[in-house]
């Protein structure tokens, strides 16, 4: 097998494409012949030694991937050779093969495209947990999605629409705003050229959004919170802008609003039944055509550096995929 190996977590440039011995699944594991893996923001942090999970060295990065099972370890009876599956974890996906715990594998329906499956669980799982579970989003409410053209942003637009909400998508260019419109956003704001607060006042008749979905952090967080509706819910998804904003604590008081943390990985670990139910609803919505991952770029697995570079330009719309084919 071949894999991208991190033996010194100082950044992307230290990753090496290596020939390795084919792994054999241990008891309770399966081996997956990987067809596609997606690039997520934690995949950058983990090779910089900045992620909350710090795997022992050396390791193969890549937290989300799909393919077909080609070997089954002792004790695994619900999965079989040839089954199409997706897998989520912290590592292993940027390779031709990976051995993973059977409990980390998501069996796929026959009609679930493997490319889509590699770009699905992290982003759609996060957005479903955020909007449906943590925010208790109701039909007719208004959702503001920041960073709306990225992987989690595009999933949030689609899930909010599937739940019957009105969506205002905020992004950094007209091209990204156009994409958001194409996938269902009711209105868009280019916050590179438009004042976010003034635009929100106009688009909500002064009421403000009921829910703010923020995977970005940084400079727009305070403006977005100052615009939130009474009893609004501000969803803290992440900080792709780099800076963690310092919120004035009088704002939640004056707005009667909630600051809601969203940590999908721990939700999966702590509440597996609720997580499984959420994924089942997402799979049903996918089958109905209500949600579908937006794929920005497809690259060969051997071109991981180019994929990271593409993500670093902040021009990615949706997800970048790495393929073994």
Strand/helix succession: EEEHEEEEHHEHEHEHEHEHEHHEHE
Extended strand count = 15
CATH class of the largest domain: Alpha Beta
Low-confidence stretches: none
Provide a count of the helices: 11
The CATH topology of the largest domain is Quinone Oxidoreductase, Chain A, domain 1
Name the overall outline. Answer: globular
Protein name: NADPH:quinone oxidoreductase family protein
Domain Enoyl reductase (ER): 11-322
InterPro entries: ADH-like_C, ADH-like_N, ER, GroES-like_sf, NAD(P)-bd_dom_sf, Quin_OxRdtase/zeta-crystal_CS, Zn-ADH-like_protein
Organism: Aquincola tertiaricarbonis
Kindly describe this structure.
The protein has 325 residues and is of the alpha/beta class. It has two domains: 2-120 and 294-323, Medium-chain alcohol dehydrogenases, catalytic domain (Quinone Oxidoreductase, Chain A, domain 1, Alpha-Beta Complex), CATH 3.90.180; 122-265, Rossmann fold. Helix content is 30%, strand content 24%. The chain contains eleven helices and 15 strands. It has helices spanning 41-47, 114-117, 121-134, 151-162, 174-182, 196-203, 221-226, 250-255, 264-270, 272-287, 304-312; strands at residues 2-5, 16-19, 29-39, 64-72, 84-88, 97-101, 105-107, 142-146, 166-171, 187-190, 211-214, 233-236, 258-261, 295-300, 319-323. Strands 3, 4, 5, 6, 7, 14 and 15 form a seven-stranded mixed sheet that branches. α5 links the parallel β9 and β10 (187-190). α3 packs across α4 (151-162) and α3 crosses α10. The longest helix is centred in the last third of the chain and has 16 residues, at 272-287. The protein is globular and about 60 Å long. The two termini are 14 Å apart. The mean pLDDT is 95.
